[in-house]
Amino acid sequence: MAQINPSMLSADFSRLAEEARAVEGADWLHIDVMDNHFVPNLTLGLPVVESLRKATDIPLDCHLMIEDPDRWAPAYAEAGAGSVTFHAEAAAAPVRLARELRAKGARASMALKPATPIEPYEDLLPELDMLLVMTVEPGFGGQAFLDIMLPKIRRTRRLIERHGLSLWLQVDGGVSAETIERCAEAGADVFVAGSAVYGAQDPAAAVRALRERAER
Ligand code: DX5
Ligand code: ZN
User: Fold this and answer.
1) What molecular functions are annotated in GO for this chain (predicted)?
2) DSSP code of 121?
């Protein structure tokens, strides 16, 4: 079963609660936290996540594109995020951090930038509930999907199967009606889409169309 997670990065930041309700039928709301250090862009942080948590029932999938997630990520679990994703490139102690997130009741997830291979992290997979393979360089919405990431998605799916694990495999960046089938075919099962959802006339219809294509 495919999960579709609209990214609020492409939503209207002055109306976040309404924009959350505009994607009825989505599985999770993807919240991109950027600190202007790990990526060259600045978005939102804990207070906004806390407010959104109160304003909507849809579970929050927080993608932390920040330095020092070891220090900051657990607070997002405490703020009510159902899933917290930290970047492998930024985490000093990913095993300890993943265990801390799980202990706080969140799903623990780790993201890989395009140039970061999965293989060094093979032994960490049992500590994770989700692995995010970035299909653009993180930092901005609306970028073109990187086809060169498809082999990494395939290799990651094979590792998950080889170890008999059930963690989810998420893709984020350039996911659209044109690219989602390739991602699904390669083995992804959780799809983040920003501009393809919030750039559409009817965001809820865009979610349904993406799901239909992913499950085709
Ligand atoms: C980019 C973010 C994405 C972004 C995706 O660094 O992690 O979640 O919102 O946007 P689209 O779907 O437009 O590529
Ligand atoms: Zn993201």
Assistant:
1) D-ribulose-phosphate 3-epimerase activity; metal ion binding
2) G
- Ligand in nearest proximity to the CA of 39: 1
DSSP 8-state symbol, 59:
P
DSSP 3-state of 54: helix
CATH 3.40.50.12640 for domain 3-214, yes or no, is no
Q: Which residues have a catalytic role annotated?
A: 32, 172
pLDDT computed for residue 113 by the predictor: 99
Give the pocket of ligand 1 (CB within 6 Å): 7, 9-10, 30, 32, 63, 136, 138-143, 172-175, 192-196
Could you report the predicted ipTM of this complex, rounded to two decimals?
Answer: 0.99
pTM of the model: 0.98
Report the distance separating Cα 2 and Cα 48, nearest Å.
27
Q: What is the mean pLDDT of residues 199-213?
A: 98
Contact 198, 10 (CB under 8 A): yes
Closest atom of ligand 1 to 7 CA is 9
**Structural tokens at position 151:** 């082999």
Assign 152 to helix, strand or coil. helix
Show Cβ contacts of residue 37 under 8 Å, excluding neighbours closer than 6 positions.
66, 67
């919240």: which residue's tokens? 31
32 is in an annotated binding site: yes
Q: Which atom of ligand 1 has the smallest separation from the CA of 193? A: 12
